[in-house]
């Protein structure tokens, strides 16, 4: 099953910028008040979220694969990963970690709850500010994903392939929301 690829940007207590690709990420129902990410224990991202309580979920478009894969490398915590990957910061409105320029959308989050499991943790973030690149979003149509090309990936026996969503030719007026039993 293809999963989304987002870049999570954080900063350490000492101010070092970090970015890492993440696929185990999901909105918690709608509207997008909360977001859930699953993290293995040994992650600078997790450490930074614990230290500062803040992170930004950036939605990269197809075309950013190379930078995404540089951020997937295991750099020591003192390395500025935005600089390593040639990514430009984008000032955030309500949190300290910058977003990443050239992405499609930015969810600024504050740590709400950490659910500890034996080998990993689930992080629930409160979305305190949400912005999207207006060139790819409209009130009437939502996201023009064919033009925006949000990055996804699918894993297989020979590694990982980057993919993006396309229209199947079918649509429906269905809209899940608060109070609907399906949501
Ligand atoms: C496409 C992709 C998706 C990933 N998704 C996750 C994930 O959901 N959870 C996780 O803990 N690591 C995930 N990783 C691995 C981290 O991105 C990788 O270990 C990275 O080096 C962590 O960086 P950090 O130590 O700076 O946080 C993913 C890697 C890739 C390439």
Our estimate of the beta-strand percent is 35-45%
Mean pLDDT: 95
In CATH's first tier, which class applies? Mainly Beta
For the CA atoms, what is the radius of gyration? 16 Å
Order the strands across the largest sheet as they lie in space: 3-2-6-9-10-5-4
**Count of all domains:** 1
| Cα distance spanning the termini | 21 Å
Overall 3D form: globular
Please tell me about this protein's structure.
By secondary structure, this protein is mainly beta. The protein has a single domain, classed as Roll (Pnp Oxidase, Chain A). It is built from 4 helices and 14 strands. The strands form 4 sheets. Strands 3-2-6-9-10-5-4 form a 7-stranded antiparallel β-sheet. A 3-stranded antiparallel β-sheet has the order 1-13-14, with no helix packed on it. The relative contact order is 0.20. The mean pLDDT is 95. Flavin mononucleotide binds at residues 5, 18, 20-24, 38-40, 43-45, 72-74, 153.
